[in-house]
Specification:
Length: 587
């Protein structure tokens, strides 16, 4: 592995800023969720009350976990129907200057499920498929809502730890509205303005025709029978796609959504034009997931608990990010054998304005944080360099993870760790004063095992069926890695891809859509069940036998459990994919 001084500086600067922003934002969000008055609430409290009145919501009433789950599911079904309808009827809806037709049924299903579940997997090119109305009224709205749902679920779980002898864990509608109004909207507005200052496009104008400096000649083509299949032509201009981009990019990053306006996502100069815009977007990926760790500590009354989880996540993420940087800056061994200069590292599929270090940092954190956006093509990474983002996915998106979903996923691992430690000393395990019993462990087991089950089962089915194999553009180990990456990304609600797979087919649109749905809701429901179970219990006073869950020893145990479950589950699949391809390069 090679490291440049610039690469190490970017690495230190990035994670240093994330650390500095964790406490202030985390403290602010704790105040929002605890109902304390904030500056934003003083300015927008009237709007919050108006929304409650218009929707008929009693903000003072609360829900048990079953009611909370039903509200989440019914709200999600409504969002799916609305978005699916917008995509299918796109051709007759307004704000469609390119006159795009309605989206096909299988692609509309996949896209609606994708944005509903905060996955933002895209089997289409945004600038060539989606109208401005579909992007704004459909996709951007779901970017806000799906992120808010994940954060609301987390808050409900935290209340379960805090409350005693009650069946109530909050009000979903209140949690969702306050999340959007006081957290996501203000942060998105600030980021959109900053991105616009860097040149990120924000316009409702149609595509711009730009004259070419040098004309392009298209030659006539004939088939085997001499029939003309392409007429000769002279191209004198190019159509450049524009649109309301900055507003979508802001929430795609902050909400760990990741769905780009353009097909190449944040590698596109209109989405991410400068090194500074690149830095802002990378910060946005981890900003809320990192800060929520501190929010958790404040809300449970022990900030050390939040920092312990933050450190455990960082212990996994920081070394893997450094490894990815080193591998990509080392370059491609095949090019080295040919004497090709790789002083900038492996630059295939990367933008010169970002370089290999920033591309590797982005690839690692976007797959850690369930964001899924890209500023380079993961399919063009070296085999071992591309394996790092794949491994981050295989940790089930609990290393910071998505907004809300990452932390409640990590808390599931915390409960497993405490349970195992309790078995080792023959004592009923406790976490934050709540006894962990058989029901909680059953729910945790479902939440932890569902994502690898879906990823591996989906991959196995795809490589056995002709419909799955026909989508492979790169045969051999790389093709297998592309399918494994796709189903792992879908089951973990990440949305990034190796991009060498033709996923816009009825098979992949349907299969990946189903996996995304199960990967989202088969975790949400067990987590809410745990919240309800804990809320009904009384707190147990600490004693000499209580396991401290903020110490270096516990952090080490937690990291070990996450790594073992993540890696051991996927080792055979990794051996067939990126590891096999790496050794093929060395032949």
């Amino acid at each position: 592995m090679n490291f440049t001084a610039n690469g190490l500086l970017q690495y230190i600067l990035y994670f240093g800023v994330i650390l500095l922003l964790t406490k202030p934002l985390g403290l602010y969000m704790a105040k929002v969720y605890q109902g304390q008055t904030t500056l934003m609430e003083k300015g927008l409290g009237w709007l919050e009350r108006l929304l409650y009145k218009a929707a008929g919501i009693d903000s003072k009433s609360e829900m048990n976990w079953q009611q909370y789950a039903v509200a989440v599911i019914m709200f999600s079904i409504g969002g799916f129907i609305l978005l699916y309808g917008i995509l299918r009827l796109q051709g007759v809806l307004p704000m469609n200057p390119q006159n795009f037709s309605g989206v096909s049924p299988d692609l509309a299903f996949n896209t609606a499920v994708s944005f509903l579940t905060n996955t933002n997997w895209q089997s289409y090119g945004g600038e060539s498929t989606m109208s401005y109305f579909s992007q704004m009224a459909g996709l951007v709205v779901q970017n806000f809502i799906s992120a808010a749902v994940g954060m609301a679920i987390l808050v409900a779980l935290i209340r379960g730890f805090v409350r005693k002898k009650t069946s109530f864990i909050g009000n979903f509608w209140v949690d969702m509205i306050r999340t959007n109004l006081y957290v996501l909207l203000p942060l998105s507005l600030i980021l959109a303005i900053l991105l616009g200052s860097q040149g990120v496009v924000q316009t409702f104008s149609p595509n711009v025709a730009v004259p070419l400096i040098e004309k392009s000649i298209v030659e006539e083509k004939k088939d085997d029978k001499g029939i003309i299949i392409q007429k000769a032509d002279v191209i004198t201009d190019q159509s450049i796609a524009v649109g309301p981009v900055a507003s979508q990019i802001a929430i795609k990053q902050l909400g760990t959504n990741g769905g780009g306006f353009f097909n190449v996502n944040s590698a596109h100069p209109f989405e991410n034009p400068t090194p500074f815009s690149n830095f802002l977007e990378m910060i946005s990926i981890l900003l809320i997931p990192a800060a929520l760790c501190y929010t958790f500590g404040v809300m449970v009354g022990d900030r050390r608990q939040g920092w312990a989880i933050w450190i455990a996540m960082a212990v996994i993420l920081l070394p893997l990010t450094l490894i990815c940087i080193g591998i990509e800056q080392h370059g491609n061994p095949l090019f080295a054998n040919l004497g090709i200069d790789q002083s900038l590292g492996n630059m295939e599929g990367k933008e010169m304005r970002f370089g290999s270090a920033n591309s590797a940092i982005w690839a690692t954190v976007t797959t850690a944080a369930s964001n899924g956006s890209v500023n380079s093509m993961h399919d063009s990474f070296t085999p071992l360099g591309g394996m790092i983002p794949l491994i981050m996915l295989q940790f089930s998106e609990v290393v910071f993870g998505g907004v809300g979903s990452g932390l409640y996923g990590m808390l599931a691992y915390v409960l497993i760790t405490v349970f195992i430690a309790g078995l080792m000393v023959g004592r009923t395990p406790e976490y934050l004063g709540k006894k962990i019993q058989s029901f909680e462990i059953k729910m945790v087991s479902i939440a932890i095992l569902i994502t690898p089950f879906l990823a591996l089962l989906g991959t196995a089915i795809a490589v056995m069926l002709e419909a799955g194999k026909t989508g492979i553009f790169n045969p051999g180990a790389q093709g297998f890695s592309e399918i494994l990456y796709a189903f792992t990304s879908a089951s973990d609600n990440n949305g990034s891809a190796f991009a060498g797979l033709n996923a816009n087919t009825p098979f992949y649109n349907s299969a990946l859509g189903i996996v995304m749905l199960l990967g989202r809701f088969w975790i949400i429901i067990p987590i809410l069940a745990i919240a309800g179970s804990f809320a009904e219990k009384n707190s147990v006073p600490q004693s000499a036998g209580t396991l401290p869950t903020h110490t270096p020893l516990f952090i080490a145990m937690l990291v070990s459990i996450v790594v073992m479950v993540g890696l051991l589950t996927y080792v055979p699949a990794l051996a067939l994919g990126p590891v096999a391809e790496h050794f093929n390069l060395l032949k």
